[in-house]
Write a structure and sequence with these properties.
Layout: H1 8-23, H2 27-31, E1 34-41, E2 49-50, H3 52-63, E3 67-78, E4 81-91, E5 97-111, E6 114-123, H4 126-134, H5 137-164, H6 171-186, H7 190-195, E7 197-204, E8 210-211, H8 213-218, E9 224-231, E10 234-240, E11 245-252, E12 259-266
Parallel strand pairs: 1-6, 7-12
Antiparallel strand pairs: 1-2, 3-4, 4-5, 5-6, 7-8, 9-10, 10-11, 11-12
Protein name: Transport factor 2 (NTF2) domain-containing protein
Domain SnoaL-like: 19-104
Pfam family, one: SnoaL_2
């Protein structure tokens, strides 16, 4: 007999154990939240950290030296994923404090011992964080001077260069393309929506449920958005309509600003309008 699927409460509890372990600097507890072969993509666009050993080195580099506080606006449970809309406050060892707008996506898996984190995608803007450090005076300069050796010591040259890959994003053109797409959806301009999509693109509402362009747009007549984040080849946005709130994940093709996939992570409240 198949095991019952985890409840919403169990999924949220699994996600909640991550900031709890971070707050008390419990390395074993935090690393133990992940499944074997898990991936941490932080920030999205940088080289992923795959497997327990790599995730331990990630902890040693980015979590252990700092005091990190999660300021959560909302959590959205969609299937076996939890998407967290938040700001992350990081106090570094030199005293500089960084506040980074973020969308965190946790893809979870049910295992014998309970629910584990299988994939972690942290959508935040590395250029913006570097800009905060640059504006923080000597404390920011000192923090930057410490972070470089930490990266090299824990990650090696490939890890350090892999982290800096997070600087390569779809940039302002991608942000503008995402805004244009959302505007076209809200206006019910089906031709404009289709014009921004790559061949074979998928539109999912909620995430995991593909819809036609017409059905997708019709369901989002009242769409509003704010807090747009560009990371790697994705743009995320906090979205809302009359009866729900969530996060849109807009992905672009590898070498263009055409949209390849849109996933709306929302908790459905009643049927979506057709």
């Amino acid at each position: 007999m198949a095991e019952p699927a985890p409840t919403v409460a169990e999924l949220l509890a699994a996600v909640g154990r991550s900031p709890a372990a971070v707050a008390v600097h419990d390395r074993a507890a935090w690393v133990g939240l992940f499944s074997d072969g898990a991936r941490v993509n932080d920030p999205v666009g940088s080289r992923p950290h795959v497997g327990r050993a790599a995730i331990e080195k990630f902890y040693d580099t980015f979590i252990a030296p700092n005091t990190i506080t999660f300021h959560v606006t909302r959590d959205v449970v969609c299937g076996m994923s939890v998407v967290r809309d938040l700001e992350l406050e990081t106090r570094m060892s030199t005293g500089v404090v960084l506040t980074v707008p973020m969308h965190l996506r946790y893809d979870l898996v049910a295992e014998v011992h309970g629910v584990s984190l299988d994939r972690l995608y942290a959508h935040w803007e590395l250029p913006g964080m570097i800009g905060q450090l640059a504006r923080a005076g000597w404390r920011g300069a000192a923090a930057s001077a410490k972070l470089g050796p930490q990266l090299l010591s824990n990650q090696g040259v490939p890890g350090a260069t892999g982290f800096m890959r997070g600087l390569r994003t779809v940039g302002r053109p991608g942000r503008n393309a995402a805004i244009g797409f959302l505007v076209a959806v809200r206006r019910q301009d089906f031709a404009a929506v289709s014009a921004r999509l790559a061949r074979g693109a998928t539109l999912e509402l909620p995430a995991g449920t593909p819809l036609s362009v017409d059905d997708f747009a019709n369901a989002l007549r009242e769409l509003r958005w704010n807090k747009m984040i560009v990371a790697g080849r994705t743009v995320t946005a906090s979205v809302r309509a009359a009866s729900w709130e969530g996060v849109a994940l807009i992905e672009f093709t590898p070498r263009s600003h055409e949209i390849s996939r849109v996933r709306m992570y929302v908790e459905q409240v009643g049927p979506f309008p057709k």
